[in-house]
Every structure is written in structure tokens, then in C-alpha cells.
Write a structure and sequence with these properties.
This protein is of the alpha+beta class. It is built from 16 helices and 21 strands. Strand 7 and strand 8 form a beta hairpin.
């Protein structure tokens, strides 16, 4: 999962892209990169780290030009420790192309072989984004046939990219001397939207918050399978390039990943989380009588809207019982259990008065490994809670995600192969309440009737691209980014609500 942004303007764009990446920092904290174009020459700076650390004044001065793109990376495949795999990626032919990508290709290995044996292109990293760039470059070369590039050629190339590439991909590319290209996969799994500034500049980004936060007015979301080409003069061309597009956005965006102040595919993320809290209230009532709950406490951050709505509907006091330390540095998942416990307690501290002698209902957005949930439940008990109930605004996570979220392997998922009671015992709470899968889809889906459905594969095991089988999952897990003993594991899902929104 990553955050991407691209701009075509009549003024320097380096600061604008930087500001856009700051607003998308929650989508990736491992690496950041910006590329700009001036007189058909690309200027690039990328490195591991947060946006504020990667770009210093000297770096920004070295990024001239009126168009460019950027990415904040959260690796799910390849080598998380290689600076070479930070984006953007560059290829010099045809024209010169730089690309940023949010998502995950499910047929990257097959494509890599095709590129070498048939297209005679070399891939130098383990990143599927470099594979995608080379497929696009090859198709652009075929479509343009050595002639001056026209928007029609660009759309023909994207059409063939859709036919070859499987998985999830939201892409922004810059073609030297021509303009900016943005497109989404035929299912629209990962988000992408476009807007315009008062000066006529065009901006494309993963979330609407990047547009609004930089003074742009959001125009619309790109449709699944659609490509938009923005010329260097700001002229915009759009075309549906997929054979059978159908909108199936990732529902985990609404549950956890996106900022609450974003609107994705016509759905307010904040309202979606309120709806999830409303739906969860029905599940809570059927499991724990409301008169046995003294207080409802969210586990920061993204569970707050659901917890607020849940408390309102049940008529139970809502309280903040955990304070999050935003300055502790990057701990996330640690390889050793002892270190993992320490990291949770460094990130969160309890307000003991909200727990002592009370029956507490903790609300989280989702439960993945369960390790963090178990530690938080124990923190509540240590603070004097009489009983600790735990409710998840999302259903049990039982299956791996293959579309660009760093979801653990099946064996690491606390809900995989376990009954509800077995999960409760592992976590150590007095009662465990999960959202229902159909109720989750309804809660979010009612906010936009035009959505055909959702990718909810980590909850229901149904992979919308239709090309994923157990062997594919095993192969993808082999390429999954993990941690060596003694290193930080980069997964944001270890500590729920890790977004710094």
C-alpha cells in the first residue's frame, strides 16, 4: 500500500508534490520519492524514510520543473531495505518514462519472464512496480510506432497493459516531453482521484485529502479501467481502456487505511466508519447486554468514529482511555514477543481512572494478528478494569491480502482456522464481538449505489480478479516483505490505527 500524487502546472511543482505526500504519509512511511521534469529532463530524489526526513532544502532546490509526481512507499513485496526499490522508477525508452504505483501485481513473475524472453526488457529489482513500468513502456513503444506520441496512442497502450497485467494498480506516470498519465485497474481496487487548482494546474492523487489540503478542488475519481492523459499545457483527455470494467474498491480502505477526511469513490470514509459502528451496535447487543457495559473506549485512531456511533446508539458513555504517543519513532511489529509488548506500551498509555472497577468495551477497527489486541486487553486489566470486552468494526481477518496491503500469511492471522471462542481465548478478553461480513459490505455500500461490490478478500476469501489460487498466495507470501530477527518489521497493521492522520 502506497500513496501517489502527480501534478501538471504552469509553476514549479516540487513544494506542491511535497505537501501532497505529507497528506498521504499515512499510506506509507518506509520511503519517499519525487521526480520533476524541466526541458525533457527528469530530476529525481528518493530515499528510505518519512517525507520530512527524505527531503531537505538542498533536495527540493534540485527538483525544478512544472510537472512531476511522487510516492510514499509502504512495501508489500520485494526488498524493504533496498533504496533501489523506492519509487519513482525510471526507464529511458521510449521517450523516457517515470512511474509511481500503488497496489500489487498478482502475475508479476510471469510478466517478468515475458519481458525478458519476448519483449527483451531487463528488470533490475524485485519490485512489481518496475515490472509494470516496463510493460507500459513496451506497449507505448508498440502503440507509437516511432511516430510523435498522441493521446490515442497512450490509451491504446493502457488498453494492452490491462490485458497483460493482473492484480491491483493505481498508476501515475510522466512521459518526457509529453505529459502525465494516470490509470486504475479494471476493478478499481486501489483509489485514485483527479482535481484542479485555481491556477489551472491538474493534480492526481490516491485520496481526496491530498487535493483539498493543497487548495485543489476535487473533480472526480478515476473510473475502474479508465486512463487520463494530461498534456504539459494542462489539456486533459480521458478514455475507458478496459474491456469489462466493474468497480470493486478495497473495503479495507474504508475500514482502516484511508484518512477519515477523505472521500473515495463517492463515499465519505468518516461516514463509512460511522455506519460500521451502527451495524456493530446490533452485534454487541446480541452478545453483551448494554447494562453490563459501563464505558466504551476506542483503541486509537481510526476506530473512533465507529466507537462514537456505537456509544451513541447504546446510550453508554464514550471515553478516551488510551493516549497515543506520536513521537516514539517507528516500532510497529517487532520480531520478538518481548519487544512487541514493549512497543505497544511505548505507543499507548492508559488513563487508569477510565478503567478502574468498570466493565469496559474496547472498540478496534480490525483485529489482524491479535498480538497487539491481547496486550491492550491486558493493559486494560492492569489499569483495574473489572471486565474487558472487545469489539471489532471489521469481520475476522481470515485470509491473506494479495492486492497491496501487508497482511500476514494465514498462519499469522489470529482468526485463521479458529472459532470465535478460540480467538477470544487467545486475546484474553471476556467477550469478543466481530462485525458481520455482509453487514460490513452493506454499511459501506449503501453510501454509493453505483459500486458493483467490494474486494473484501481478507474477510471472505473471494479475490475479485479471479486469478488467485492457493499456489499463487503461497508464491506471493514468499515475496512478502518481512523482518529479520533484530530488525523492525514494517507492517502498519501490527499496531492498529498506526496512521498519523
Amino acid at each position: 500500500m502506497c500513496g501517489i500524487v502527480g501534478v501538471v502546472s504552469n509553476a514549479p511543482v516540487n513544494q506542491l508534490i511535497y505537501d501532497g505526500l505529507l497528506l498521504l504519509q499515512h499510506r506509507g512511511q518506509d520511503a519517499a520519492g519525487i521526480v520533476t521534469q524541466l526541458d525533457r529532463k527528469f530530476f529525481m530524489h528518493k530515499a528510505k524514510g518519512m517525507v520530512r526526513d527524505v527531503f531537505r532544502t538542498r533536495n527540493m532546490r534540485a527538483l525544478p520543473g512544472n510537472c512531476g509526481l511522487g510516492q510514499v512507499r509502504y512495501p508489500t513485496a520485494g526488498n524493504a531495505y533496498s533504496e533501489e526499490e523506492a519509487q519513482p522508477f525510471y526507464v529511458n525508452a521510449p521517450f523516457g518514462i517515470v512511474l509511481v504505483h500503488n497496489g500489487n501485481l498478482t502475475n508479476a513473475q510471469a510478466l517478468k519472464s515475458e519481458l525478458f524472453l519476448t519483449d527483451h526488457r531487463h528488470i533490475n529489482t524485485e519490485s512489481d512496480s518496475e515490472v509494470l513500468l516496463n510493460v507500459l513502456a513496451h506497449e507505448l513503444e508498440k502503440a507509437s510506432r516511432g511516430l510523435p506520441l498522441k493521446p490515442e496512442d497512450v490509451f491504446t497502450a493502457v488498453h494492452h497493459v490491462h490485458r497483460r497485467v493482473k492484480g491491483s494498480y493505481a498508476v501515475i506516470a510522466l512521459i518526457a516531453g509529453h505529459g502525465l498519465l494516470a490509470f486504475r485497474d479494471p476493478h478499481g481496487i486501489r483509489p485514485l482521484c483527479i482535481g484542479r487548482g485555481k491556477g489551472g494546474e491538474v493534480m492526481v492523487a490516491s485520496e481526496s485529502v491530498a487535493l483539498e489540503g493543497t487548495g485543489h478542488e476535487m473533480e472526480r475519481n478515476l473510473l475502474p479501467g479508465e486512463a487520463v492523459f494530461v498534456g504539459l499545457d494542462g489539456s486533459t483527455h480521458a478514455r475507458q481502456c478496459a474491456d469489462n470494467p466493474a468497480l470493486h474498491p478495497c473495503i479495507f480502505e474504508f475500514v482502516y487505511l484511508a484518512r477519515p477526511d477523505s472521500v473515495l469513490d463517492g463515499i465519505s470514509v468518516y461516514q463509512a466508519r460511522l455506519n460500521l459502528g451502527e451495524s456493530l451496535a446490533k452485534r454487541v447487543v446480541s452478545t453483551v447486554p448494554p447494562n453490563e457495559i459501563d464505558v466504551i473506549i476506542p483503541i486509537p485512531e481510526s476506530s473512533r468514529p465507529s466507537a462514537t456511533q456505537l456509544a451513541h446508539l447504546l446510550g453508554i458513555p464514550y471515553r478516551e482511555g488510551f493516549v497515543k504517543n506520536r513521537y516514539v519513532g517507528r516500532t510497529f511489529i517487532m520480531p520478538g514477543q518481548g519487544v512487541r509488548k514493549k512497543s505497544v506500551r511505548q505507543k499507548l498509555n492508559v488513563i487508569a481512572s477510565e478503567f478502574k472497577g468498570r466493565n469496559v468495551l474496547l472498540v478496534d477497527d480490525s483485529i489482524v494478528r491479535g498480538t497487539t489486541s491481547r496486550e491492550i486487553v491486558q493493559m486494560a486489566r492492569d489499569a483495574g478494569a473489572h471486565k474487558v470486552y472487545l469489539a471489532s468494526a471489521a469481520p475476522p481477518v481470515r485470509y491473506p491480502n494479495v492486492y497491496g496491503i501487508d497482511m500476514p500469511t494465514s498462519s499469522e492471522l489470529v482468526a485463521h482456522g479458529r472459532t470465535l471462542e478460540e480467538i477470544r481465548e487467545v486475546i484474553g478478553c471476556d467477550a469478543l464481538i466481530y462485525q458481520d461480513v455482509d453487514a460490513m459490505k452493506k454499511a459501506v455500500g449503501t453510501l454509493n449505489a453505483s459500486i458493483a461490490g467490494f474486494d473484501a478478500s481478507c474477510f471472505d476469501g473471494v479475490y475479485v480478479t479471479g486469478d488467485v489460487n492457493p499456489d499463487d498466495i503461497a508464491r506471493l507470501n514468499q515475496n512478502r516483505v518481512g523482518a529479520e530477527e533484530g530488525d523492525d518489521d514494517t507492517s502498519r497493521l501490527a499496531l492498529p490505527n498506526a496512521q498519523e492522520a
